[in-house]
Design a protein that fits this description.
With about 425 residues, this protein is α/β, with parallel strands linked by helices. About 35% of the residues lie in helices and about 20% in strands. The model is unreliable at about 1-20 (pLDDT under 50). The structure holds zinc ion (ZN).
């Protein structure tokens, strides 16, 4: 409730001060999204939704600007999570099956408004939301509500229902006469073209396909679609100007997705050195979703630092090392929703823990993710003409990545949602 009150307060303040519409942000230091080091004593001038100037204060004409004092804070581009689920909440609260089967779309949308607000207040100004998990096009409607200013939240790029091979996805385990709703839309063969077009018509920004899933004889992950099927999805999406993203955990699922031309691969914990070399060569980015792996292990009883590391987590650590060595473009994509919205910074802590430098983690969550979204000239960088998505954290994230959990200031699109 306190967070909500703060939010209302700053909406009020921002509506008052928007009259000037010109802010001079004065932090201790700035991470611009791309450089190797912080810029000490930089200031950032914002006007009419955009950054006008960034640099030494003496060089910037800030006449008429309202000064926002961010002493003790590091300013950086708004964070981007490339793998979220606004229509899911943590599985230790309610299992995925029960969320899909027992929660109304209205309840799920109501929860999503809380999730979106929590994400924004934690410094996430953009989400690529990868599947409504049984809630149809509710994500498209929420994105429209955000654009109209009905609710606060990150800019939202959505994947709608997502596409799965018939028989592969859940919920499962019902009597043969029961037809439960599914967590995604089934399609196969030539029908994939129609379903991709239908989802485009429904308003998706990205087409998401499950290149493998846990449908093997022993419940293990196995490939689903053929290369030809995946290629028809990618080509149909591309013809409308939309990229395709593939869920793939197995090496074979990843291989087929790469051949088909997807732009990002999600999870990929069984990726081999050869697969990651192919991804690097083809420019396919990888969202490792490390936090989801640790969250699910914890829900199963794992106590980090006390119990032995579970196989699932060891696989992700190994894959992360291989991908780093191969030079794959690594996204910051956490699968938030599996764990609480507003806690995506956990993914960045794990990227650092699994071997990435702090500066590369920061780049991944800002300019690298923006580039993957085809928005590299709009967001993810602090420079003139970029949208004014800016946050500030207490402390220096190059010394301690965990300061990203301590967000004190949030501006999106030039509007202030949180201030110290
Ligand atoms: Zn996911």
């Amino acid at each position: 409730m306190r967070g909500f009150a703060v939010f209302i307060f700053f909406i009020f303040i921002s509506s008052v001060v928007t009259a000037t519409d010109r802010y001079l942000l004065v932090p201790d230091a700035v991470f611009d999204g791309e450089s190797n080091q912080l810029h000490e004593n930089w200031v950032v001038l914002v006007q009419d939704h955009r950054i006008i100037a960034a640099g030494a204060r003496a060089e910037i004409d800030a006449q008429g600007a309202q000064i926002i004092d961010l002493a003790g804070l590091t300013l950086l581009p708004g964070l981007i999570d490339l793998h979220s689920h606004i229509l899911l909440h943590p599985y230790n609260e309610t299992s995925w099956n029960d969320q899909v089967l027992k929660e109304s779309f209205a309840e799920r949308a109501a929860r999503a408004t809380n999730h979106l607000r929590a994400a924004l207040m934690a410094g996430f100004t953009t989400y690529r939301d990868l599947g409504s998990e049984g809630a149809g096009y509710t994500d498209v409607g929420l994105a429209q509500a955000l654009e109209k200013g009905v609710i606060p939240g990150p800019r939202l790029l959505v994947a709608g229902p997502a596409i799965v091979a018939t028989g592969s996805y859940g919920p499962k385990g019902f009597a043969d006469h029961v037809n439960p709703p599914l967590g995604a839309e089934e399609a196969d063969g030539a029908d994939l073209v129609r379903v991709v077009r239908d989802q485009i018509g429904g308003g998706v920004d990205w087409v998401k396909v499950y290149a493998d899933y846990r449908w093997g004889p022993k419940g293990e992950a196995r490939p689903t679609f053929s290369v030809e099927e995946l290629t028809s999805i990618v080509e149909t999406a591309a013809s409308s100007g939309r990229p395709t993203v593939a869920h793939a955990g197995t090496a074979e699922g990843m291989r087929r997705a790469i051949l088909a031309g997807v732009e990002t691969i999600e999870h990929g914990s069984d990726g081999t050195a050869e697969i990651f070399a192919q991804m690097a060569a083809e420019g396919v980015a990888w969202c490792p979703t490390l936090a989801a792996g640790e969250a699910i292990s914890a829900y199963g009883g794992w106590q980090k630092g006390i119990d032995p590391t579970p196989a699932r987590v060891l696989k992700s650590q190994r894959a992360f090392e291989l991908a780093l060595a191969a030079g794959v473009t690594i996204c910051m994509g956490s699968d938030v929703g599996v764990f609480p919205h507003g806690e995506s910074a956990w993914e960045m802590e794990l990227m650092e823990e699994y071997g990435m430098s702090n500066i590369d983690v920061l780049r991944a969550a800002t300019s690298v993710n923006a580039e993957i979204l085809h928005m590299g000239s709009e967001i993810g960088t602090v420079a003139p003409d970029y949208l004014a998505d800016l946050i500030a954290v207490a402390g220096n994230p190059l010394e301690d990545i965990s300061v990203l959990r301590n967000v004190q200031f949030v501006m999106k699109d030039g509007y202030i949602y949180r201030a110290p």
